[in-house]
Amino acid sequence: MGTGASKQSVASKQTNVKVSGYSRTDNYQHTARVRKHADFAGECATSVPRASNHPSKGHSRQTVNADVTVRTLSRKKDGALVCVSIDFGTTYSGYAYAFRHSPNEIIGRGRGQPVKFPTSVLLNPQKKMVAFGEDAKTLYHGLVKTQEYKSWYLFELFKMALFVQNKPLEKNIMIEDILGNKMKAVEIFSLAIEYIKTEVINTLTDETRMNKATINVMTDIHWVLTVPAIWNDLSKKFMRDAATRAGIPDEMLTLALEPEAASLFCKEQLGVGTLPSGHRYMVLDLGGGTADITVHQVNDDGTLSEIHQPTGGDFGGTNVDNKFVGILVQIFGADIFQKFKKDCMDEYLDFMQNFEIKKRNFDGSTKLILRFPIKLREMYEQDVGASVESSVNQTLFGNKLEFILDKLVINVELAKTLFDEAVGNIVRTVEELMVAVKPIYHILLVGGFSESPYLQSVMRKTFDVAFGGEAKVIIPNEPSLAVVHGAVLYCLKPFAIAARVCKYTYGIARLMRFEEGHPDNKKVRIGDKYYCDDIFNKHIEIGTQINIANAEIVKAQTYYPSRSDMKQAVLEVYASPHKDPKYIDENGCQFVGLIKLDIDPKGDMYSELLVKLMFGGTELRIQVTDVKQNIVTNACVDFLG
């Protein structure tokens, strides 16, 4: 939670604060919402933070420099010697970097190691991290062989815990390891980011030492952490908090949207940069957990503008895994399958790894043939008293599955159904965008799931001009590296993305005079007047295109204290997926953060708070001016939508 500007008699005092994303107050004694002057015409002008706002009476509007915060927040980053990107993925992660003196040379993970590594965290029985990535998987597999694994903790696929829709993200959200043991998500995320950060620093230290130079890890590195564009604001803020907890300086950290980073990579590497002004293309970042889709248009100066708010969902590659496990549970029962997973972890891990390999190579024309775990067969037949074959023949899968010796054979028809939900949702979303923002000339597929031959085949047959479609489908070489390399480009050229489309409607909670039609449960009394609480006072509407380079002021509004004895005003920021929300508790509305501000201790209810929402880079910035005292407070909310 940010702190308010101190009360000093100085001209236009500038204060930077951080907006909390996880708390709010309903204490109306000394801290309250604001309201607007129009809500109490004829009485002493008060406003409620919960803020009320109204046309000013006799107060001059001072012009506040909208670029103050941009310069303050970016100066240190601009002076960094190296840009480092971390692509924190659901199944795999990676990093890349470039020195500012050699911006065209983007360097990935070297020393003979794989460029991408599993997002796997292994903790010992004391809950201390002992391994990450492939080392974590290998060590855990060894523990399984010796039956020591049950007291250890292996966390995988945990990034999906941050994909929440139409509900707030809990600050203390818990995640489960492979055996169902729970720990706080922020601890696991922080440990993973810290490991990657340490490896990056060691790599950079060695490289600069070879060049007889030194690097200050606190001031010389501009870190860029990638996040899905379709995440809500609190999930994005969670990642920033996890990164700072991992030791990355907050003032040296930038969040980048994954499909935007991929778009910059494609623009630079695939000749998209030669496309004419006005040319539109769609980027599909198809990862393990989510499909993140955006549409860009090339501007006259070669920069890119987003022309539709990001869309997508939880239909990444792991959706296919979940469908496969779902079939196994239907055949063997949840209890037996969970017992197999817990007691025969070595066979379970081998089985799922075998499926992962087959899934990646499936092209829609051949059967899937898997090694079937002997222990699972034995458990089932001992518990049920019937053979697996006879039981399967009594299910819907009877003519689609075969057990031949130690092999499980899945026919083509059933194998395709494993992909149906994920691929179907991707196709449907692209079809909707093709109608909404015609014309689109290219569709770019990036991310790990985009390497699926079956997915590529479906996309080409559905959309490519070679098959009668309206666009050219492009899959770059090594599409899984597009995001991590593109994020370095974004670090070097943050204004290469010139405009974004607002993914939510943003506003501030306030009070207004209670009127007929207002809900009775929102009726509150202040003094001898009645007000309606929880009003959503809109500042910017979903679908609005925001000019990033100009740090555009979207909408300035004025708010006033709700009562004369207020010592603090509270500005609560909310986001809604709807164009015209009326109340902050409507379906889909989410609390983003708040600012607490010290106000005139003399209790003047005419204290005027001029609130401006400004969009620059990847953060929503809020600038609040106490007009009477000439005090300016700057605050930042992680904003990427």
From TrEMBL:
Species the sequence originates in: Dreissena polymorpha
Q: Which GO terms describe its molecular function?
A: ATP binding; ATP-dependent protein folding chaperone
What InterPro entries does the record point to? ATPase_NBD, Hsp_70_fam
Keyword Metal-binding appears in the UniProt entry = no
Query: Sorted alphabetically, which Pfam families does this protein's record hold?
Result: HSP70
Looking at the keywords, is ATP-binding present? Answer: yes
Cited PANTHER family = ALPHA KINASE/ELONGATION FACTOR 2 KINASE, HEAT SHOCK 70 KDA PROTEIN 12A
Swiss-Prot/TrEMBL keywords:
ATP-binding, Nucleotide-binding
Instruction: Kindly list the residue ranges recorded as spanning the membrane.
Output: none
**What protein name is recorded for this chain?**
Uncharacterized protein
Q: Which family does it belong to?
A: Belongs to the heat shock protein 70 family.
The organism's place on the tree of life at top rank: Eukaryota
Region annotation (Disordered) maps to: 1-29
